[in-house]
Design a protein that fits this description.
Blueprint: E1 6-10, E2 13-14, E3 20-24, E4 27-32, E5 39-47, E6 51-61, H1 87-101, E7 108-109, E8 124-131, E9 137-139, H2 160-175, E10 190-197, E11 203-209, H3 216-225, E12 229-236, E13 249-254, E14 258-262, E15 265-269, H4 279-293, E16 300-304, H5 310-316, E17 321-326, H6 329-341, E18 347-351, H7 354-362, E19 369-372, H8 381-390, E20 394-399, H9 402-414, E21 417-425, E22 435-442
Parallel strand pairs: 4-6, 7-21, 11-12, 16-17, 16-19, 17-18, 19-20
Antiparallel strand pairs: 1-5, 2-3, 3-4, 5-6, 8-9, 8-10, 10-11, 12-13, 14-15, 20-22, 21-22
Helix pairs in contact: 7-8
The chain binds S-adenosylmethionine.
């Protein structure tokens, strides 16, 4: 088998990310864009000793579960990878991803929480701006495995109004000939735009640039045309880095935060704070986490990796006391304001790394339940060790990366915890990412 060689194959199954799987010369082949049961012509794109990757060149026998992608960029864009299949197949693949990754544990498997809106659900969009070869201003997502920006009109999983605002910004940048960033040469001004919106129809726009600049006219143009824009920020990031937002912010218009409503509570959210990207399924995810926790009014709880306090304050409504821990200072400022906004008295927010802060809490009082919602890399080992030492009876682990959650659950199972129940949740429709909420309890020894 050689690179770029083509084969006529039948696809046996899916891998955990929704690639079609077949076998050639005893090698497993992962085929992008192919579906179970299909007969396809594939081209080999990458070869390893035991497996290789290929892409679909032609479909000879089509799966009944295949649909026409609604996105014109799906072949090249590195964003959504499951646009070619119906939703039933997508959710089965996601359930299987969680099942396969957690197969060494014995637990109750709950069905995936589905997403009623599989398009237009994203409340945050972040897109680089560039100039194409003709010198026209373009914006869009990066091409798969590259830093080339694909010029797009619209991202179909993102909010319609945000797509429209992007269009206006690009027109303005083009008409007024504002210098646009060139990544290869690391020169030019206008780098990227982030737009965030809430269910209360409030929008925040962040213009990411390499140097300070007077955007008074752009701000007026945007706010005249979009009354929903409540906040516009400039973020100055001159570094050649993959980290899009720097710590250097300047408020150009309106309020510092926009307001979100989650399960009836109000939340101030800043540009730098984490907020789940799918509002409706975030509510379902939190409700499921609270259901699994089975909280009681006499309980003391920790919400680790709490962000702006959106789970913490929902926990507070049900328990004696809750501590939220979060490393980003702006998110903790939001969380403290959110506590006041919702007139909640039994929550305390602590700014710092969970692995450090939890050590102080461990000697303070008996904790009955802890929620973890870490970033993709999962929890620090020292954090888990303190949780184990504290003998906290119940853990609710929310994860956007089931592989690292599985690693952490294994550590916890070895030290007296049992994985009881797992519920996948489709927060990221049309992509292969899946959110999961897991309940662990401490075995009575
Ligand atoms: C997946 S988000 C969850 C936020 C929140 N629970 C929510 O649902 O909106 C993870 C959060 O953990 C924070 N974080 C990352 N590493 C951390 C650490 N070592 N200690 C505390 N917080 C951390 C991030 O800033 C982010 O707000």
């Amino acid at each position: 088998m050689g690179l770029n060689e083509t084969f006529n194959v039948k696809i046996d199954s899916y891998d955990i990310n929704g690639y079609g799987v077949c076998h050639i010369d005893k090698k497993i082949v992962f085929v992008e864009g192919a579906m179970e049961g299909e007969v396809v012509i594939i081209k080999i794109t990458d070869i390893h000793s035991k497996f290789c990757f290929a892409k679909t060149i032609k479909i000879l026998e089509k799966s009944p579960n295949r649909i026409e992608s609604l996105c014109p960029y799906s072949e090249i864009c590195g964003g959504c990878d499951l646009l070619h299949m119906n939703y039933e197949t997508e959710t089965k693949i996601k359930e299987n991803k969680v099942r396969q990754t957690l197969r060494k544990f014995n637990y109750i498997e709950n069905p995936i929480i589905k997403n009623d809106n599989q398009y237009g659900y994203r409340n945050k969009i972040m897109v680089p701006f560039r100039k194409d070869e003709e010198g026209d201003v373009i914006y869009g997502f990066y091409e798969k495995m590259s830093h080339n920006v694909i010029s797009m009109d619209k991202c179909i999983i993102s909010n319609d109004k945000s797509n429209e605002i992007l269009h206006y910004i690009a027109r303005y940048i083009s008409i007024f000939n504002i210098s646009v960033y060139n990544e290869e040469k690391n020169i030019g001004l206008f780098k990227e735009v982030m737009i965030r919106n809430t269910v209360l129809n409030e929008y925040m726009v962040v213009l990411i640039v390499t140097a300070d600049y007077d955007f008074t006219n752009l701000v007026k143009f945007l706010t005249d045309n979009f009354k929903e824009i409540k906040s516009i920020w400039l973020n100055i990031n001159s570094k050649l880095t993959n980290v899009v937002l720097s710590d250097s912010y300047k408020l150009l218009y309106g309020s510092e935060t926009i307001i979100e409503d989650i399960l009836g509570l109000k939340f101030n959210v800043s540009a730098a704070s984490f907020m789940q990207v799918n509002h409706d399924n975030c509510e379902k995810l939190y409700s499921e986490a609270l259901r699994l926790a089975d909280l009681k009014p006499n309980m003391n709880v920790i919400d680790a990796y709490c962000g702006m306090g959106s789970i913490t304050l929902n926990i507070a409504k049900k328990v004696n006391h809750v501590y939220g821990i979060e490393v980003v200072e702006t998110a903790i400022i939001n969380a403290n304001n959110n506590k006041i906004l919702n007139n909640i008295k039994n929550a305390d927010f602590i700014c710092g790394k969970c692995e450090d802060v939890i050590k102080d809490l461990s000697s303070k009082e008996k904790i009955d339940c802890i929620f973890f919602d870490p970033p993709r890399k999962g929890c620090e080992k020292s954090f888990l060790e303190t949780v184990i030492q504290m003998k906290i009876p119940k853990i609710v682990y929310i994860s956007c990366n089931i592989a690292t959650a599985s690693r952490d659950i294994e550590i916890l199972e070895k030290e007296g915890y049992k994985l009881e129940s797992v519920t996948p949740c489709d927060l990221f429709s049309r992509t292969s990412h899946v959110e999961t909420v897991c309940l662990l309890t401490r075995k009575q020894i």
